[in-house]
UniProtKB/TrEMBL annotation:
It comes from the Bacteria. The chain crosses the membrane at residues 20-38. Keywords: Membrane, Transmembrane, Transmembrane helix. This is Uncharacterized protein.
């Protein structure tokens, strides 16, 4: 049975993957937190 993903879920997942990739390439956590707060929790 196929599961149908809503576009919001897909975009949310892409956003999380982007933050994880930034962390993996070595961007310090405090900078990521500042960017997250500036960008907002959308």
């Amino acid at each position: 049975m196929k599961s149908i993903l809503k576009p919001e879920i897909i975009n949310n997942t892409r956003g999380k993957i982007g933050w994880i990739l930034l962390w993996l390439i070595g961007v310090p956590v405090p900078i990521l937190l500042i960017l997250f707060l500036i960008r907002g929790c959308t």
